[in-house]
Specification:
flavoprotein, Aldolase_TIM, 39% helix, 3-stranded antiparallel beta sheet, Dihydroorotate dehydrogenase (quinone), alpha/beta, 8-stranded parallel beta barrel
Length: 334
Amino acid sequence: MLYSLARPLLFSMAPERAHDLTLSILKSAHKMGFIRQKIDAKPVTCMGIEFPNPVGLAAGLDKNGAYIDALAALGFGFIEIGTITPRPQAGNPQPRLFRIPEAKAIINRMGFNNDGVDQLVENVKASKFKGILGINIGKNADTPVENAVDDYLICLEKVYNYASYITVNISSPNTKNLRSLQSGDALTELLDTLKQRQLELAEHYHHYVPLVLKVAPDLSREDIDFIAAQLITFKIDGLIVTNTTLSRDGVENLAFGNEAGGLSGAPVFEKSTACLRQFAEVLNGQIPLIGVGGITQGEHAVAKKEAGATLVQIYSGLIYTGPELVKQCVSALT
């Protein structure tokens, strides 16, 4: 209710300014004890972890882990922060975030803007959150793609002891050549190297942190078959389906619809759910799936589950609907 009243004011601002202001207000309100959305649900076990409910926050909203406690108070079953890179980077030039309200859509070309992995770790250590925390890792923009595995290793090692699970993001369209890591020898080398290091870290820290891959919706059936085979070969623990799309279906004739970047929100729902369904068919239960993309109402979360997802994540829908969307999705799923 409160968000529906505040949204017109927030939407009158530049999107990135509104984003920062909303998070700042949320953090202050949480500190004063004003935010507490309690959601009762049956726990869900996935990747060997018991999630209090199946609805999580997707990466991208809290890139540096600076708002974990406040976001957790909205009732999410899990929070995913990042994408984080080894070194701080400014990301792409502004403006780089665009709302398309007529389609409940967002286009972003943020470019992994973040304060670096060391600052994220400090923020996680300072938080009081004891729930399920995913940390999403990537590569710096100026790291050649042929050396990308080095950046992922740095992040994996630094966040390992602070994450409930770690997501390997190779599907953002806003870092040059990043999506090339989704295919061929590049994917094989990346997964092989990260899996070996994961097992070494598990032995060192005496606890196992699941490794998850996040893929794009813009994949052919051949791509899906190849990725699925690699996930099984290297015993990757989970798959997030999907990131944003390069397609402009549904927004091509709307203001900002042809801006460069990844499209999220309602227009990506069908495409991402179809991709999820195809992965579910190929993997046949061997690897758990997390469905994300275009969830703007509870029925969409149910559709993701029916397509094969054990858990779901929301982000863009939250911008248009507000925290009530978390409750709607949990209620629909349980």
